[in-house]
Design brief:
heterodimer, A: mainly alpha, two-stranded antiparallel sheet, two-stranded antiparallel ribbon, 7 helices, 4 strands, about 65% helix, B: mainly alpha, 2 helices
Amino acid sequence: MDSNTGISVVLKAEQVGSLFGLTLTNSLLMTWLVMIILIGFTFYFRRKIALIPGKLQVGIEWLFEGVLNYMTETLESEHYARKFFPLIMTIFLLVLVGNELAFIPGIGSVGFHAPEGFIPLFRAPGADLNFTLALAFISFFTIEITGIVVLGFWKYGKKYVNFSSPINFVVGLIELLSNLGRIISFSFRLFGNIFAGEVMIVVAGFFVSYFLPVPLEMFEVFVGFIQAVVFAMLTLFFIKLGIMEPHGEEAH
Amino acid sequence: MGALLDAFGIQTHLLIAQLVNFAVLFTVLWYFLYRPVMKTLDERRKVVAKGVEDAREAEAALKDAGETASVITRGAETEAEGIVARARDEAGTERDRLVKDAQARAEGIEKDAEARAKEEHERVLRESEKEIARLAIMAAEKAMRKA
C-alpha cells in the first residue's frame, strides 16, 4: 500500500478486466482460484481412495463422518443427513478455503496500478457481496424448497399464511418476514465479517506496519473458519426448521 | 435500492456467475469426492461387520469343535480303560496258566531226577558189590597161594 495515498477501502470488488463484455472482478477471480484448488484436490485425492486409508484419507473421512454424524443428530434422520451433506459440505469448503486463501502471502498484494489507485488481483470472495448473496440465495431456496417438498405445499404454506386465528396469522407473517430476512442476514454476516477483517488489517497495517497485524491476522484466520462453520450450520438448522411439522397451534 | 446495490457492487451477471460457480463446485465435489468417500466408508463398515460376524461364527465353530473333541476324548478314554482292564484280565489268566505249567514241568523234572538218582545209586551199589566180591576172591586166591 502506498503510504502517501492514505487508506483506501473499497466496499465493492474491483474490476480487474472484462470477459465477453462483462466486468470481471477480483473476487470472481479468487472464487475461480478456490474452485481450481478444491477441484484439483478432489481429482488428486480421488485416485488415492482405498478401503485401507492413508493418512490424508483418514483426515478427510474423519471430517466427513464427523459432519455427517452431527447432521444426523441435528436433522434426526440419516436419510436427510446424507441428502444434504453435499450442500452443507460444499458451502463449508468453499467459504473456508475462500476465506483462508486470502491470508496466503501474495494473494492480496499482487495487483496493478490503475488511475483510481492500486487494484489487487485477488480479493477474498467473502468480501464481495455478490458471492455472499449468491450463497444466501442458494441456502434460502434450498431451505424453502426442501420444506415444500417434505411437508407439501399447503402444509408448508400454513406456516406463513394461517387464517385459523388472528394470532396465528400474525405469527405466520412474522415467520415469513424472518425467513426472507435470512437472505440479508446470511449474506451480510459473511460479507461484514470478512470485509471488516480486511479493513481492520489494512488500518492496523497503515498505523503499525510490523507486528501488530500478526495477531489480528491470526484472529481473522479464526474468524474465516468460524464464518464458514456458521454459514453451513445455519443452513443446516434452517433446513431442520423447514422440514419440521408446523406447530399444532390449536393445542396451545 | 439501485444505489445500494451499486454501492456493494452487486451486478446480475456477477451474481449469476457465483451461482454457477457454486453449482459447478457442488456437482464436481459430489460426484468425485463425497460419493466415493461415502461409498468407501459404507464398504468398510460392511467389511468390518462381516469380519465381526465371521469371528463370531468362527468362535461358535471353535466351541463346537471343542465339544466334539471332548466327547471323542471321553469315548476314547472309556474305551481305553476297557481295553486295559481286559488286557489285565487276560494277562492274569495267562500268568496263572504259565505258572501252573511251569510248576507241573518242574515237578516232572524233579521226579525224573529222583528216579534217575535212585537207579544210579542202585547200579553203583550193585557194581561195588561185584567189585567187593571180586576183590575178596582175589584176596582169597592170594592168601591161598601164599599158604
